[in-house]
Design a protein that fits this description.
alpha/beta, three-stranded parallel sheet, flat
């Protein structure tokens, strides 16, 4: 699974991925709250930090979906 989020959605995707036994890659803004990053990682997600814009996030998500089938 793949998502772009700096908070609760990131954690939900990470937890759902763990429960489903699939990889989760979450793009987060570089200034995401440390507690949210830690919680998302605790659910087993891989975090990719990036400079935020909706256009950048959409391009990243589409590339990841194409590359991994997430």
């Amino acid at each position: 699974m793949a998502a772009f989020s700096s908070g609760n959605h990131a954690q939900a995707v990470a937890l759902a991925s763990r429960e489903a036994g699939v990889r989760a890659v979450i793009a987060m803004p570089e200034d995401a709250p440390k507690a949210k990053v830690a919680a998302t990682q605790a659910y087993g997600a891989e975090i990719v930090f990036m400079i935020v814009s909706s256009r950048t996030a959409k391009k990243w998500r589409l590339r990841l979906l194409n590359e991994t089938g997430a």
